[in-house]
Design a protein that fits this description.
Elements: H1 3-38, E1 43-47, H2 54-65, H3 70-79, E2 88-97, E3 100-107, E4 112-116, E5 119-123, E6 129-133, E7 142-143, H4 162-177, E8 184-187, E9 193-197, E10 200-205, H5 210-223, E11 229-232, E12 244-247, H6 255-263
Parallel strand pairs: 1-3, 4-7, 7-8, 10-11
Antiparallel strand pairs: 2-3, 4-5, 5-6, 8-9, 9-10, 11-12
């Protein structure tokens, strides 16, 4: 074989590789074009979110994937799941179609909170601190009267009176189990549990028959809806079901005094 023929053959081989590379390059470009243009999200179904709006959840997903693209968002969610978002345990994304995805948000189960220097310290059912926030969630009971030292996120709230804290954790668990929305929880001077719901004070008494009391409380509160006063459940048992409601006495306003204040 002559030298010219070898050069010619080599050139053909190089040209062949060039065409092959060009083909793969065009194939990649076409693939990228299809992915970017045909997988634009038009519908997102989001479930499980109560702390964040649908718009906020969608923004988190788009920032994680850098694109508003169903395929890329699903892929990035598997490779690099969203982490470090307050009150969210994890976010799962399901590919439904080229223009639709489904999102399941798994939020941390918040049992209660305590206020500390203008911030709310949220803890779970075992007393471990989930987050510290300036925002007060209305569906989480705020515990009053607990004393503690410095706290560390994701560690147990260092409450000095551990027995009281264990009772609080028990109550918050029963609140969740029975679908109650309690505003505040505290202990009386006599170490009796007191709950607050709207304009009703609920006196639970000592830590006795607590499960029975909490199980029956939703129905009792429904009957007392719109009322103001104190609900005494100290003597309540599954057998006796003793409940006393004492309405709040409205303060009488002296009309003459009221008129004088208005004139003044």
């Amino acid at each position: 074989m002559g030298k010219k023929e070898q050069v010619k053959k080599r050139k053909k081989k190089i040209l062949k590789w060039k065409y092959l590379l060009l083909f793969f390059f065009l194939l990649i470009v076409a693939g990228v074009y299809v992915i970017l243009t045909q997988f634009h999200i038009e519908k997102v179904t989001i479930d499980g979110n109560t702390r964040y709006t649908d718009k906020e959840i969608r923004t988190m997903l788009e920032r994680n994937a850098y694109f508003d693209n169903s395929l890329i968002i699903c892929l990035m969610n598997r490779i690099r799941p969203i982490k470090g978002v307050p009150f969210i345990d994890k976010i799962d994304v399901t590919y439904i179609s080229a223009k639709e995805i489904g999102v399941d948000v798994y939020e941390m189960a918040v049992a209660g909170c305590v206020e500390d220097m203008g911030r709310y310290i949220y803890f779970d059912k075992d007393g471990y601190i989930l987050e510290s926030s300036e925002e007060r969630f209305t569906d989480v009971p705020c515990v009053e009267g607990l004393t503690f030292n410095k706290f560390v996120l994701h560690e147990k709230l260092p409450v000095k009176d551990k027995k009281k804290f264990e009772q609080i954790l028990q109550v918050t668990q029963l609140i969740r189990e029975n679908g109650l929305n309690i505003d505040r929880i505290r202990f009386s001077i006599a170490d009796e549990l007191i709950l607050y719901k709207d304009d009703i004070i609920i006196q639970l008494g000592k830590n006795e028959n607590l499960e029975d009391k909490m199980m029956n409380l939703p129905g009792i509160l429904e009957e007392a809806k719109g009322m103001k006063g104190t609900l005494h459940m100290e003597e309540f048992t599954q057998g006796s079901k003793t409940v006393t409601f004492i309405p709040k006495k409205e303060k009488k306003v002296n009309k003459k005094q009221m008129k004088a204040e208005e004139d003044g």
